UniProtKB/TrEMBL annotation:
Native species: Phycomyces blakesleeanus (strain ATCC 8743b / DSM 1359 / FGSC 10004 / NBRC 33097 / NRRL 1555)
Keywords: Aminoacyl-tRNA synthetase, ATP-binding, Ligase, Mitochondrion, Nucleotide-binding, Protein biosynthesis, Transit peptide
UniProt-listed Enzyme Commission number(s): 6.1.1.20
Name used for this protein in its record: Phenylalanine--tRNA ligase, mitochondrial
Reactions catalysed, as given in the entry: tRNA(Phe) + L-phenylalanine + ATP = L-phenylalanyl-tRNA(Phe) + AMP + diphosphate + H(+)
A cellular-component GO term for this protein: mitochondrial matrix
Length: 415
């Protein structure tokens, strides 16, 4: 057992967390809400479904070195530059991330640790952890979620020895370890092989990637015989070719991971010029929601015993719903000044003022005044506690605070 309380202070001059102090600058936008959860580490709480899935994946990839305790506070170098993400890439913006200062942020993906993993000298490794993105608020989006990264590399030799290496490493498969039998990867010119790579070797690496991921997914979903998995072409600055993997669940395709053949400059930075590798990054919440039948992403954070005492390490089991407490719904409408409107920031401010009691924020009405050209927005906020009844008076007080903060922060005219 360990402490899950974060130690943090936010002032107008600095942000202090877990013993580190950052002076505020024009990039600082971390919120008390996310800082307060930094030490929860759901992926390490043995009976939390996030952790159960992490453990099952780590046992499946039993010849991979697992890392799960890298600090979520990373540099922009780690989160972006090391991964060849261009300086002007939209994923760097303040409205998508939580920055401590212009050089430091809460990691937005576990890929931020790829170079750290490589510097360990391990040829096959996993990295799991909490990741942070400013996002909307609803049953499938929460500003903190968890990912697991997988990475494997090989000697980039002649195709015959490459094949031998890859087949020797395929000790997770119960079928013949013959990559040719398993390979149905089609590499297209629109999702290109890097100029420095030989097509034959890329085919082998991609086949191992595809086989490794599919066998992991099929082992997690062993009890769901009708599972459908599909691979679609994708783009990431740090892999090429790249794919996303989707599973068919309750009538819709659900994206579960991104992956690809690692950009060679990234390998070369680690002194691995003569190696070739693959990587994937997968969201644990989505998998856990599907596998455990968990209807709301916020349940993972619940400290209600009716949730925390349901699950057993090593076992996938269906969530038994307990009755929800009644919601309390309040609308807020206002005129916004001309120009851009960042809904993510609005949701963030609402959550900052009200906390986790906000279950959902939804735009329900929008119009532009024909004469003044001013835009009117109306948002509906659904308040509900996961662990108790809320009173109308209590919510009215919170709603008042939300109104004040929204007015201050966005210079809107409340209606
Ligand atoms: C990435 O984060 C890349 N780092 C993945 C990667 C790693 C690609 C290595 C290539 C090589 P993306 O933003 O698509 O990509 O997120 C990866 C997965 O995280 C998604 O497929 C999804 O399962 C999960 N994910 C992303 N955003 C959310 C969210 N807001 N809530 C829950 N899960 C999410
Ligand atoms: Mg994606």
């Amino acid at each position: 057992s360990y402490s899950t309380a974060s130690d943090y202070t936010v002032t107008d001059k600095f942000v202090k967390v877990n013993g580190r102090t950052f002076e505020r600058d024009e990039w600082t936008n971390v919120t008390p809400n996310v800082l307060s959860k930094m030490n929860r580490k759901l992926h390490l709480q043995p009976t939390n479904p996030i952790s159960i899935i992490r453990q099952l994946i780590e046992s499946h990839f039993n010849n991979y070195k697992p890392f799960h305790s890298f600090s979520p506070i990373v540099s922009t170098q780690q989160n972006f530059d090391d991964l060849l993400i261009p300086k002007d890439h939209p994923s760097r913006t303040k409205s998508d991330n939580y920055y401590f200062d212009k050089n430091t942020l809460l990691r937005a993906h576990t890929s931020a640790h790829q170079l750290q993993g490589l510097s360990s000298g391990e040829k096959k490794f996993l990295i799991s952890g909490d990741v942070y993105r400013r996002d909307e608020i609803d049953a499938s989006h929460y500003p903190i979620f968890h990912q697991i990264e997988g990475f494997a590399y090989f000697d980039n030799t002649d195709p015959v020895s490459m094949r031998a290496q890859i087949e020797a490493g395929m000790n997770n498969d119960t079928r013949a370890n013959n990559i040719d039998l398993l390979d149905d990867t089609v590499i297209k010119p629109s999702n290109p092989i890097q100029g420095c790579h030989s097509p034959e070797n890329v085919q082998l690496v991609a086949a191992d990637l595809k086989h490794s991921i599919n066998s992991m997914i099929y082992s997690l979903f062993a009890d769901e015989p009708d599972l459908k998995v599909r691979w679609i072409d994708a783009y990431f600055p740090f892999t090429s070719p790249s794919w996303e993997v989707e599973i068919f669940y309750k009538g819709a395709w659900l994206e579960v991971l991104g992956c690809g053949v690692v950009q060679q400059p990234l390998m070369n930075k680690s002194g691995l010029d003569n190696k070739i590798g693959w990587a994937f990054g997968m969201g644990l919440e989505r998998l856990a929601m599907v596998l455990f039948d968990i209807p709301d992403i916020r349940l993972f954070w619940s400290e209600d015993k009716r949730f925390t005492e349901q699950f057993t390490p090593g076992k996938i089991q269906k969530f038994k719903p307990f009755s929800k407490y009644p919601p309390c719904i309040k609308d807020i409408s206002f005129w916004v000044p001309k120009g851009e409107w960042h809904e993510n920031n609005f949701c963030e401010v609402v959550r900052g003022a009200a906390g986790d009691i906000v279950e959902n924020v939804q735009l329900i009405d929008e119009f532009t005044h024909p004469k003044t050209d001013k835009r009117s927005l109306c948002y509906r906020i659904l308040y509900r506690s996961m662990d108790r009844n809320v009173t109308n008076e209590e919510i009215n007080a919170i709603q008042e605070k939300v109104r004040d903060v929204v007015q201050d922060e966005f210079k809107v005219e409340l209606r």
